[in-house]
Amino acid sequence: MPTFYIEQFGCRATQADGAAIERQLREQGCQLASHSHAADVVVLNTCTVTAAADTQARDAIRKLHAANPSTRIIVTGCYAQRAPEELAILPGVSFVVGNSHKPQIPNLLQSISLMPPVGAQHAAPHLAPLPQISGSHDIAKILTGDIFDLSEVLVAPVLGGEGNHTRPTLKIQDGCNARCSFCVIPFVRGKSRSLPPEKVVAEIQRLADSGYREIVLSGINLGAYGRDFSPRVAFFDLLRRILDETPVERLRVSSIEPLDVSLSFIDLIASSERLAPHFHMPLQSASDRILAAMHRWYRAEHYARRVELIHERLPHAAIGADVITGFPGETEADHAATLRFIAERPFTYLHVFSYSQRPGTKAVALPNRVPGSVIKRRARELRALAETKSAEFRAAQIGRTLRVLTLRRDPKDDPSLTPALSENYLSVQLPLRLPPNQLLAASVTRTEGKNLCALPLEPVLAASAAG
Ligand code: SF4
After folding, report:
1. Which structural domain range is residue 218 located in?
2. Ligand 1 pocket, residue 202 CB under 6 Å
């Protein structure tokens, strides 16, 4: 069997898909190479959320091929689903596999092992060849289909169990039934679908049994979890079931739409130390006019109410948001409204995105595009504000006791320190050498750059299996 390597791009959900592919390939007997240059086959798992993500994927393919022209490249993920022809013509690419056909990647590795060397004619008789396009290389085979036909979440969607991370991500939901006017995701991931609750519980049990202390639940639109079942299953009920039926010590919800953050959801998080007090709610804009043009279904006041409720019950919770700047028609007044909204509320971090036109989305046809230089300046202003808010939040932690999970040390890091992550999503440095995957109480003494410095308050346990 050929050796393989997976190059990951994009969000946690896409990365969880990559981890699932890795697991399937290992189960089939393929060996993971230490680096892309050493692999017979590289699976490039792409994102297409912005034009920059597309460029990054094409550049990565060119680099891979230049570094090792004999490597077979399989391109998959959201870009492969959206525009397979753009990728199929790139040198070195053997297959372009859309999200609709991801489960077939293990079979492709088998067929690749039977193929003649690169440069000879490809032989995959079950696939229709594309018309030849002029150039010196073969043209890749494309496998894509109607993404809206997909009804199952990718099998075994765990990121971390195989990827050697300390905090595995379990993807429990895929696709989206909303149609935000800027967003290409529903067209590349299909309709919303969920992993059945018993499978979620079994996966979490398996991860907890392997020694993992913190598990991150992710999805494309997590609050839509279970609405595809009959009878429906509420995400809230799933969380309760996980707490009741598994021993997981810390569960973190990766991102959830603001209207899915109900009072009972906030109360549930506030009621259990096993649920991380961390709310990541996409805001996108605080101008109601722009929210309407984006086809977002809440207005600034609805979002503000959620933030208030969270802050009342959990004053030290992490509250993060995605913000898009430069959406068509966004005026200086709209931008100022977003800045003001954020400045006045206890956000602890922001992810700022510059609007990027995505083919096939409604926003493409909107007039009054914002010039690139204006988008850049607005993004800078939002990021500066985000940094001020984050610094204030960090400073407010001095003297508090946080429950931190020690992380794997990067070889470049100071060997006398141990990085850790707090329940409220802050980077912490502990002044001693500890193995990863220890969950312990630590007292915050000061801030240093973007980190907190803290002293452990309890004896350190032996490294667990996952460490
Ligand atoms: S909720 Fe909107 S932004 Fe999020 S994935 Fe669905 S369409 Fe895209």
Report:
1. 150-255
2. no
Which SS3 state, helix, strand or coil, does residue 93 take? strand
Q: Are residues 47 and 86 in the same domain?
A: yes
Q: Is residue 430 part of a domain?
A: yes
Rounded distance, CA 251 to CA 269, Å?
10
Residue to substitute in 14, 78, 147, 183 for testing ligand 1 pocket (most ligand atoms within 8 angstroms of CB)? 183
Residue 265 lies in a domain: no
Q: How far apart are CA 465 and CA 7, in angstroms?
A: 26
Ligand 1 atom nearest the C-alpha of 284 is 3
Q: Report the alpha-carbon distance of residue 300 to residue 10 in Å, rounded.
A: 28
**Reported pTM:** 0.89
Q: What percentage of the chain exceeds 90 in pLDDT?
A: 76
CA-based max dimension of the chain: 67
User: Rounded to whole angstroms, how far apart are CA atoms 56 and 451?
Assistant: 29
* Residues 6 or more apart in contact with residue 307 via CB below 8 angstroms: 319, 345, 346, 347
The verdict on 250 and 231 lying in the same domain is: yes
User: Residue 37 — left, alpha, or beta (φ > 0 → left; ψ -120 to 50 → alpha)?
Assistant: alpha
**Are 33 and 138 part of one and the same domain?**
yes
3-state secondary structure of 71: coil
> Using an 8 Å Cβ cutoff, are 140 and 96 in contact?
yes
* SS3 category, 237: helix
Does residue 73 lie in a domain region?
A: yes
* Alpha carbon distances (Å) from 197 to 201, 227, 260, 394: 6, 12, 18, 36
CATH of the domain at 179: 3.30.750.210
Q: Does ligand 1 have an atom closer than 6 angstroms to the CB of 184?
A: no
**What's the CA-to-centroid distance between 295 and ligand 1, angstroms?**
10
| CA-based nearest residue to 196, from 254, 149, 157 | 157
248 C-alpha vs ligand 1 centroid, how far in Å?
Answer: 29
Per-residue pLDDT tens for 187-246?
999 999 999 999 999 999 999 999 999 999 999 999 999 999 999 999 999 999 999 999
| Residue 263 forms part of a structural domain | no
Strands (E), 173-263: 173-174, 193-194, 214-218, 250-253
In angstroms, rounded to a whole number, what is the distance separating the alpha carbons of residues 159 and 23?
10
CB atoms within 10 A of CB 230: 6
